[in-house]
Design brief:
The chain is built from 13 helices and 4 strands. It has 323 residues and is mainly α. Helix 9 (236-246) packs across helix 11 (274-288), helix 11 runs antiparallel to helix 12 (295-302) and helix 11 (274-288) crosses helix 13. The chain binds a DNA duplex (17 and 17 nucleotides) through residues 216, 271-273, 276, 294-296, 304-308, 310-311.
DNA sequence: CATTCGTGAAGACGAAT
DNA sequence: ATTCGATTTCACGAATG
């Protein structure tokens, strides 16, 4: 089931890789709010309106090639035949496979004897392609990473990053004694953080087969052992997602951003959870713009308690009036 | 009635020892 | 491994509109 999905993916990549130039993906659709043009923000894995910043979809998939070309000769050089290599397949998509049809090259059916022989060949082919335990491990983990990233609506770039992190963990012998799923989950979370498209611990844990405790433990372990440089999440990077989930006006969303900015300048950030701040900023902004938005609603979509929102939004408003 | 606000106890987490 | 401090959450009741 998983392998089918991966195959479909690379098929797609093969089909589109040669057609696309470096132009960023542009959707023909228009924004439901203000009829502005929708553009897909590949970096954040979101589709946003150019005019008002409304996020309509979070699940964009990056179909463009992974390289950039600055003129036609460069493009010619870099264009390859076949799918781009990818971190998402355990052999980076380089190996081939013996087909399953019991026919010869001309399409004629094989003799029973030959069938049996092909069966044996296929078996060994499979064994060689997933040669040792590490490769088998990778195969399973990459499937999981792909599954979770899709469920979270993360772009292909991020899936690649997650796969990269997982490979590093595997190379550093960090796996023994830990579950594959835990490390894979941690890799996805780390990749999302690194690319400024953070998903909260809760969100990631929800799509993982592993419970939150083991997941956070694995994540900390990964960060420490691999020296991953991960900056504290920026509250602002949550705002657009929450704002569209709450259906607030773009005025409010903008205000929330500026509130966070002034709060940060006054060092209000330290030690507080970025998600909590983002939630509070949205609520505070709604008050300023006279948009009615209940604490309960914000709490609902952000998974932040109303109490925390209460405590933070006054601070945010104070910081704003001081300036 | 719904929403907001404030409280204290309790849990979770990171840092320091 | 334990302790400590800050933050967050839960549960409740009161106030506000």
């Amino acid at each position: 089931m998983i392998s089918e999905r991966i195959n479909a993916d690379t098929e797609h990549a093969r089909a589109t890789a040669s057609e696309h130039d470096t132009e960023s993906e542009r959707s023909d659709e228009t924004c439901p709010e203000c009829t502005g043009q929708l553009i897909s923000d590949e970096e954040h894995g979101e589709i946003v309106c150019r005019e008002c910043g409304l996020v309509t979809k979070e699940a964009s998939i990056d179909h463009s090639p992974e390289w950039r070309a600055f003129d036609t000769s460069e493009q010619y050089e870099k264009t390859r035949v076949g799918p781009p290599t990818t971190q998402l397949l355990h052999d980076k998509g380089l190996s081939s496979q013996i087909g399953w049809r019991n026919t010869d090259a001309h399409g004629k059916p094989l003799e029973p004897r030959q069938c049996a022989r092909m069966q044996r060949l296929r078996l060994w082919d499979e064994r060689f392609r997933t040669r040792n335990s590490k490769d088998r491990n990778l195969k399973q983990a990459l499937g999981e990473i792909d599954r979770m990233a899709s469920a979270l609506g993360l772009s292909k770039d991020i899936r690649e990053t997650a796969a990269m992190i997982y490979r590093r963990a595997l190379a550093a012998d960090l796996l023994p004694g830990r579950s594959i799923e835990a490390i894979a989950t941690a890799a996805v979370y780390a990749a999302a953080r690194q690319s400024n498209t953070p998903r909260s611990l809760d969100e990631v844990a929800a799509v993982s087969r592993i419970d939150a405790l083991e997941f956070t433990r694995a994540y900390r372990y990964l960060v420490r052992e691999l020296n991953l440089a991960i900056a504290p999440a920026d509250p602002a990077s949550y705002v657009s997602r929450f704002a569209s989930a709450l259906d607030v006006s773009r005025d409010t969303e903008q205000r929330a951003r500026t509130l966070l900015k002034t709060a940060e300048e006054q060092g209000l950030h330290t030690g507080k959870s970025p998600i909590g701040l983002a939630a509070a900023a949205l609520y505070a902004a709604a008050i300023q713009t006279n948009e009615q938005l209940t604490q309960a609603a914000v709490s609902e979509v952000t998974n932040i308690s109303e109490v925390t929102i209460r405590n933070h939004y006054t601070e945010l408003l104070d910081a704003d009036t001081d300036v």
